[in-house]
Design a protein that fits this description.
The protein has one domain: Transcription Regulator spoIIAA (2-Layer Sandwich). Helices cover 28% and strands 31% of the residues. The chain has 2 helices and 6 strands. The chain has helices at 23-39, 57-67, and strands at residues 4-9, 12-17, 49-52, 73-78, 83-89, 99-100.
């Protein structure tokens, strides 16, 4: 088992913590999983990527670095609002802070 889980489910990148560990190991596992997904063709890019699940700040940086290059915009689910908040964008259809379902 891994310290961080990343999977596509219903068009959303679902993330979650796995085995208890410290961030130094968690970021390595998150990066390895993203690389595995890229090599398997699961990360093909597109206009928008939605991410949902718990994340630490160091893992968020890993995901941002890897995914911002292949997706036009990235939105992260905010459970208080019940929507995805656009936090990275190179796509003129999405502005920083936009809320999407």
């Amino acid at each position: 088992m891994t310290t961080y889980k990343i999977n596509f489910q219903d068009g959303v990148l679902r993330v979650n913590f796995g085995e208890p560990s410290q961030n130094d190991q968690i970021v390595k596992d998150a990066a390895a999983r993203l690389e595995e997904m890229a090599n398997a063709g699961e990360l093909q890019g597109g206009s928008l990527l939605k991410i949902n699940g718990p994340i630490s700040i160091p893992v968020a940086f890993v995901l941002a670095h890897k995914l911002a290059h292949i997706y036009g915009a990235v939105g992260f689910f905010d459970p208080k609002i019940g929507k995805y908040v656009i936090s990275i964008t190179h796509n003129p259809a999405y502005k920083l802070g936009d809320l999407v379902d």
